[in-house]
Structures are given as C-alpha cells and as structure tokens.
Amino acid sequence: MNSIIETDGAPASVSGFAQAVETAPGARLLHVSGQIGARPDGQLQGDVAAQSRQAWRNVFAILDAAGMDKTDIVDVLAIVTEPEGVAIFRQIRDEVLSGHLACSTLLVCGLANPAWKVEIAVRAAR
C-alpha cells in the first residue's frame, strides 16, 4: 500500500497533489511513458481539455493492461504547451483521479509535435 507523506516543514501543495508518496517495500513498479491526446487509432483530439481527457484515458488503459488502476499512481509528470492549459489540466486531473492524491509535476513548454497540447507520464506502484 502506498502512503501519503505530508509535513508543514515544506510548502503545502497548491492544487490536488501530495507532497510525497512512499511506496511499500517489494511493490511492483510501473513506469508509463508520456501519453498524448490521441486515440488508439492515432486520431489527435482537439483542444487542451479534449487532449487531456484522452491522454488520461490512454494512461488508464495502460494501467489496466498491467492489472493496476488510478489508485496505484504515485507520481504524475504532465506537460502543457500554453499557460492557459494549467488550470484546465488541473481540473481534469482532479476529476479523473477522483480524490486520489499522487505526487505531481506540471511543466509549461513545447512538445515534440506542435499539434500536441498535453503529455502525461505516470509512475504507479502496487
């Protein structure tokens, strides 16, 4: 079982994420490569919200294939290409994780393809 670590000795999170997550000894780890907002057939979704939702669907499909689910996510690395995408990404992250807390890093920068508006990579442990 993964454990949330919180302390007032470091700044509190500014949105829905944990300061730290401890993974139990002997846990099985899964590292999910960055997922973009494209469906399995390669069709890229439209705006940052649509791409964020699809990228999360892709992450969840990979977790499912490994016998895991969103409650096993311990760390999220997300990239959005525009500052306006930060609030949208956070809202969708909080919605799809349904209160599950994980560590989180969110960057605003370019991606390998200019049509990509978001990319999400996760680490999971069970």
Secondary structure elements and pairings:
Elements: E1 3-5, E2 20-22, E3 29-36, H1 48-65, E4 73-80, H2 85-97, E5 103-108, E6 118-125
Parallel strand pairs: 4-5
Antiparallel strand pairs: 1-2, 3-6, 4-6
Helix pairs in contact: 1-2
Keywords:
126 residues; alpha+beta; four-stranded mixed β-sheet; 2 helices; globular
Describe the structure.
- The chain is α+β, with helices and mostly antiparallel strands.
- The chain has a single domain, classed as 60s Ribosomal Protein L30, Chain: A, CATH 3.30.1330.
- Helices cover 25% and strands 29% of the residues.
- It is built from 2 helices and 6 strands, in the order βββαβαββ.
- The protein has a 4-stranded mixed beta sheet with strand order 3-6-4-5.
- β4, α2 and β5 form a beta-alpha-beta unit.
- α1 packs parallel to α2.
- The mean pLDDT is 96.
In short:
The protein has helices at 48-65, 85-97, and strands spanning 3-5, 20-22, 29-36, 73-80, 103-108, 118-125. By secondary structure, it is an alpha+beta fold. The chain starts with a strand and ends with a strand.
